[in-house]
Amino acid sequence: MSTLLDIRNLHVSLNIPDGQLRAVRDVCLSLDSGQSLGIVGESGSGKSLTALALMRLLPRAADCRATRMQFQGQDLPALSDAAFARDIAGPRIGMIFQEPMTSLNPVYTIGRQMTEAAIARGMLSGPDARKKAIDLLDRTGIPDPEARLAQFPHQLSGGQRQRVMIAMTLMLDPDLLIADEPTTALDVTVQAQILDLLDDLRRERRMGMILISHDLAVVAERSDKVAVMYGGEVIEQGTSAEVLRAPAHPYTQSLLRAIPHLGGPPGRLGAIPGTVPSLLHPPRGCIFAPRCAHRLPECTTARPPLRGTGDTHRYLCTLDHPPQVRLTSDPLIGSGAVDGAEDVIAASHVTQVFQTRKGLFGPKREIRALDDVSLSLRRGETLALIGESGSGKSTLARIMLGLSVPTQGQVTMLGRPVSEISGTERASFVQPVFQDPYSSLNPRRRLAEIIARPLVLRGDGDAAARKRAVEEAMDLVRLPARLLHAYPSQLSGGQRQRVAIARALVTRPKALVCDEPTSALDVSVQAQILNLLDDLRAEMGLTCLLITHDMAVVHQVADRVAVMYQGRIVEEGPARNVLANPAHDYTTRLLAAAPRFANDAPVPEVAQ
Amino acid sequence: MLRYIALRGLLALLVAFTVSLAAFLLLNVAADPAQAIAGEDATPDVIEAIRARYGLDRPLSVRYFDWLGGVLTGDFGESYYWHKPVAELVTDRADETITLALSALAVTIVIAIPLGAMAALNPNSWIDRFALGVAVSAQAVPNFWLGLIMIILFGVMVPIFPVSGDDSWKHFVLPAFVLGASSVPAVMRLTRTGLIEVMGADYVRTARSKGFRGWPLLRRHAMRNALLPVISVLAVQLGQKFGGSVITESIFAINGLGRLALESILGADIPTVQMLIFVFAIVFVVMNLIADILNAALDPRIRIG
Predict the structure, then answer these.
(1) CB contact residues (below 8 A), chain A span 92-131, against chain B
(2) ipTM (interface predicted TM)
(3) What integer pLDDT is reported at residue A120 of this predicted model?
(4) Which of B210, B213, B301 has the CB atom closest to A106's CB atom?
(5) Which one, A318, B2, B91, B244, has least CB within 10 Å?
């Protein structure tokens, strides 16, 4: 097999007003033709910048240098921009991006966008390009491909647009395909289809592929080699089997422990304490040292050496031997609801109809977002509401929070109709936690004010009592008291989500409604929050309605699960039973689509 | 698409009707037209006579529908001052104003769009700063002042262009430049921000990844998207050119609608003023309708909801 890509000592730095952000440091990657390489890392690890550097798509403010960047034996940095655009970008290396909704030009037809590059390069005539586009759309599983050519991007769904992107990239028959988080923005069932499609196409055409993802499970399933990035460096790489079954770097080990798994009984996740260090001034020693459980004094003073086990497996670590991998995890500490617990919030026969009207004179259209839904949340339990985008789960959450009134049906809180409960009183029944902790906290207020806000609105207690309540809430969510006067911008994503939870808990509500509380967070931070929910169940008997699209999260924290599909609850029951023996076809599909590690791979655990 | 145009057209008609009502009411209720015609020193008898002579003694609603009926048949009444049909007065002078407004718009487009595009493609370069300088000065300088300076520079010091009258194309060069300059800042800045946004858009990155760069990238994937908002603004600007012709035509002694408006306001010639307000408003409405249709033609998200 010939070497397709060989990158040595790639550095990318971004010039920002505060200085130079050294976002990618000393990255070495190589790939044989026909092979697939997975690059895994959390946000800010430099995985996307590495790919953009290869494609010369870096932002203006970026500097990029490497001692070697060869593609099929050709030295890439030696090429002029014009030569690179003509010979490499497109016909040799193709790229698929994360955002299918915005990656196609909204004002041109699918057909024009698919064929233009081949025609402009003189590779194909107009009719031939059209024919090839139809074939490729058909191959990517788009129904009625010929009609699609005349359509515009906004007429297609996200999944279809991503298929169009894939087909468009293949129009030029590239030898290497870079897919940067190709499925992150898509629903779970669509995700699996797109990834399978990419995999099949790669094998069919013997293309090389770089699959970039934050999701280790996604990469593990489909790559020959894996490179794990952290803080701008590749801290470990090797064959997928080596990296996933015998991870040698403490970060890789921790990352694997932080992911909730669908197989086996749920246990405590291995959350990684702390946050990624600033890349403005990367530490002199190991980049992971500040968060590493196995840190030695020399880790912070000297660069870790590149070590290897076997031919292909390389990792950056000061430790002479990789830490032992532990095979068991601690059991969860929280317990679910006792039998016969009372309903805290109950929705019965709720129907929500939205009327929309196109333009001033358009005809009225009815959308049935919820159709005769009954659901109750019992004291002390965590009930997961799972479904894909548009299934109506967030609409139901709003109704159960009492924030909107359903078209039909009613909601009761501890037996009282929600309409009889005033807004301020309702706040002590139920509180929300939202998905994006970056936009749901007021950036101009200090934590003490943010968390105390519900109390102030209710006019509860005096200043001293409020301060005590805030401190208690912060203690519950493990936020150190020294952050009392910090602003949200000074916090990490995980800390912000803790603030959101503290704000929700400060009124001592009977229940929380958490809408995708971890889907905007990195895996290691998600583990912190999921463990926190477990702690809260143990300490205060938290009652929680958890809205999610992630089956593994359901498995990790839920007692009961309700599956929503097209505005109805199609299946409901104890989480263990539903996940083990799904009764509804849709639940089966959701489960089958959830990425998981190959069955024969032992779940690695790290002794701490 | 046809349905969209029909709906927009209907909406435009409604706006036109509202404007006609507003124009009529403003002139007939806010002031007493008979008093205005008669002058300040007129005796009550004279005013009464004028009222009867022009039918101003009838109820407001009757007069409005009488006027509206005339408008629909192209009869805008007779000028109190020139004693000619108003419609004839206006059509006689419309040519000059249309020429002036269109050439002013052309000046705006030719200066603002390339300048904005160059600034967008080289942000924070000398050309960006130069474009910003142009925008700020054009925004700050009043029209009439720029007109006078142009007359001094190119009419008196270096006499290249005539400064008064409307006999040849040369007469329109300076006024068109002066009138066009006032729209340069808005259009230029909008082109710049629009293009900067589009050049950073994901679909432009996609096009780059297919190997497009330079002019083909700009032409195929950025221009249309960036110009969509500019078209709407240009339509409004063209409407303002008609309104702005009042001052510019006076400075350069062009015998167009702007001057007619000025003269008829000074002469309390209510039917003429009424028609001019109506016509200027209709120009705005029609321009916006055209911009809507153009936008729909260029942007499938509007065309196919």
Answers:
(1) 94-95, 97, 99, 102-109, 116-117, 120-121
(2) 0.80
(3) 92
(4) B301
(5) B2
